[in-house]
Amino acid sequence: MVKVRGQLSVEFIVVISGLLIILATITMPMYNQARADAETVSKLADAREAAGAIANALNTVYAAGVGSKQTVEYWLPKGVVKIYADVNVDGIDTTDNDVAPDNRMDVQIWLGLDGNGEWDNKREAIILLETLLPSENNENRVIVGDENFKVSSGLHRTTFTYEYKGGLRYIVISDIEVA
Fold first, then answer.
1. Burial 155-167 (b: 16+ CB within 10 A, else e)
2. Which of 55, 63, 91, 100 registers the highest number of CB atoms within 10 A of its CB?
3. Confidence band (pLDDT; 50, 70, 90) for 93?
4. Which residues pair with 154 in a beta bridge?
5. Quick one: pLDDT at residue 9?
6. 172 and 163 in contact (C-beta within 8 Å)?
7. pLDDT of 89 higher than 80
8. CA–CA distance from 32 to each of 25, 75, 79, 142 (Å)?
9. DSSP labels for the chain?
10. Neighbour-count burial of 136, counting CB atoms closer than 10 A to its CB (0-12 exposed, 13-18 middle, 19+ buried)
11. What is the pTM of this model?
12. Which of 96, 35, 84, 12 is nearest to 55 (CA)?
């Protein structure tokens, strides 16, 4: 039996290469899924922080009364489809879970987590925070106009002003994109 010098090294390299290829085919899909899940959690955390800032500003302005004003800054992640913060927003029905109305206005941030630019209609794709403000069903309602919210990703500076006009109470929202 003739032994060729270096034959064991070549066999070792071939076996190790095969094992590395098998290992890569198993671990890459797991890595990609974990990375996608981490991005989703990061977006949800940023959206929750933004909803918290908006809800706190609405609560503060409402509690301080007519004439009060507050400006807040918050970061919106990519994938935000819509921000709702008006008296008609109280509870939500989604394809996988419902939140019942409770006569308190909600701040809702809807996200499109699958990247198509549309809300996913799932409970996990919405941030919902309750405020102190009464909803439309309550006779002491305050009119809140949420049409000025911008949904582009980045830093936003939003001013909330509590006004009294024509016998009605309004919270006026003005949103400025900073970055």
1. ebebbbbbeeeee
2. 55
3. low
4. 76
5. 79
6. yes
7. no
8. 12, 26, 19, 46
9. -PPPTTHHHHHHHHHHHHHHHHHHHHHHHHHHHHHHHHHHHHHHHHHHHHHHHHHHHHHHHHHH-TT-EEEEEEEE-TTEEEEE-STT---EE-SS-EE---SEEEEEEEE-TTSSSS---SGGGEEEEEEEEE-TTSTT--EEE-TT----SEEEEEEEEEEEETTEEEEEEEEEE--
10. middle
11. 0.78
12. 84
pLDDT in tens, 40-68: 899 999 999 999 999 999 999 999 989 99
Q: Produce one character per residue of 66-103: b if its CB has 16 or more CB atoms within 10 Å, e if not.
A: eeeebebebebbebbbebbbbbebbbbeeeeeebeeee
